[in-house]
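ugh ok fine here u go
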Amino acid sequence: MSPFHGDLGTLLDFPSLAICISEGDTLGGRLAYVNHAFERLTGHAREELLGSGCPLLDSEELEATHRRALIGALRDGRPFTLTLPCRRRDGELFHNELSLSRFCLGDGRRYLIGIHRDVSQREAHQNRLELAQAVFNNTHDGILVTDANKRIIDTNPAFTELTGYSREEALGKKPNLLSSGKHDSGFYESMFATVESRGFWSGDIWNTRKDGSQLIENTTISAIRDESGRIANYIGVFRDITQRRLNQARLERMASYDPLTGLFNREHFNTLLESQLVSLEYTQSGLAVLFLDLDDFKPINDNFGHACGDELLIEISRRLKHLMRANDLTARFGGDEFVIALTGLGTADKAAKVAEKVMADIIRPYQLDNGELVRVSVSVGIAFTSSHEISAAQLLDAADAAMYDAKQQGKNRLAQADTLDQRGAGQDAYTLVKTAFDAGQIELFFQPILSIHRQHIIGFEALARWRHPEKGVLGPQHFMDVITQSSLSLPYGRWLIDEAARVAKRFHVEGHEIAIGVNLSQDQIETGAIVESLASSRHRHDLRRPFLVAEVLESTHFHDLDLACGLLQETRNLGAQVALDDFGSGISSITYVSQLPLNTLKVDRTVTRHVEAREDRRQFVSGIIRMGHAMGLQVLAEGIESEGQLEALRLLGCDLAQGFHIGRPMAESEIVKRYLSPDTPPRFPLKRESRVCRV
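structure:
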């Protein structure tokens, strides 16, 4: 008779514990006892079970790992607990927590006692917790969790990736460590009032990353309450929408108006001008374009600062608005260029009379807010047509070229373009440069950039030259102003970036991950053309690694610094680097250095001259280098013409150098021969690296 019946059986009949006892101390023994809970757990009646093997430990159903674990534990003679999947009689799967141990009666008979518990709910809960943790760790949205006092108690990896703050840096802090200062206290009070009343708040927040860059977040903040209904935690989930918002803002600003003056911008003006030209088919009343460029505007910026320059541009725009009729179009094309379209004048002479009034009004003195009295003059180019077949681009190009004629004639005067259908190739500066550009006579020369400490070339600066068919190779002073201050600016910028990509690709396929620096104008940046050109060229030439350094002149006058910063940050997101060129050549702007998303500070040659001989110059350069390094920037010294200069800069801790001592600007064929030919090893070789060098 089984010893497990009677009082002992009653004692083992726990309602919450399924118990079975089998004969012997190995798997597969016959069941000598099962309680009612075991019957309910398995779905088998006691009569079916006694004398047969345990259905939950059927060796055919057990997974190999579980079977090995059971056999090993029994061999060692130790009790153990294991959770394994089992099936009831009806086939339903459940998680069984099995505790198994051996025991022996006084007469020597040995048994295995198994205690079984259905822990399916616990396992499901654990799986949900693991899934939640996996989502927390792997989602691309940033997540932060705070306690009821709004102190951070946890963050996920995406939080670090998006903000730059590690989890350890954030713990114990309040979320306002990300505050940009763009929202006042009322904004946050209203936000948390909504969270408390509705349980959540959703919207956009302007924050700041650890490195100081702008972070615009689409955020949802939820309140977690405890059993008593009190808030125990806040959870913030956010995603980075910075670029989307900057793109949206850029498109909105670019859609119609110049952000500084409120006049039409270039794009919208061109659209309206096209419409007016179409209407000439019916009105035949004539249309004139006045292209205005202020004379000697730069000294006002240099002497009084960019804010005063902006003030002057705004006042000029007011005077132009006052002079123009309601149906005239007035635009600012950028910098100190203004364009006016006059309709219904009938003749070019009438347009000239309007231009004279404009010149007389602009030349009147201006009282700046700082009390200074300043004067500027203006050069005006006039193009007139009565034909609807003339395009807006043709009319603008003609007026632009006429304006340059006025400049060359001594400034503060006007010049009229020839009647458009009579204009030949022309010999004015604009026409000559445009013809040269279209004919491919403008080409790039490349000057090497040296890593001072590693003593190898890590990149080149692309410098434009005009290969004139009669005068030979001409420097940029012969054509660059015409390009950057005319309608050639954007096409030239696109060509410049594409050429840099093409040449970089040539070096990349040889295993040299060099970057090429290009000088960009204000228009090329503020219109967003740099972003489009960079993405297009990278795709066209199948460039997998960074290839471009966008160089911004220190003297560049951005009228919307936030917009410029956002667009330059977009170029960095596309793999480019940003350098501030000619630093120290004018009134150095620490604002530009601190706000633009820079990688490199390029010190002008006028600063590095005599650095090897003069202590005061060494102290000055050393200060710039220390400042650059403190701001996380590399410092590049331009104009290095001797070994003494190079050694002095090395001792001062300068990172990079460029100048005739390292290499003169060379044509593409020459840099290929010098740096890629095994027959002529250069003094400073290119460095092969698996990771891209920073320029």
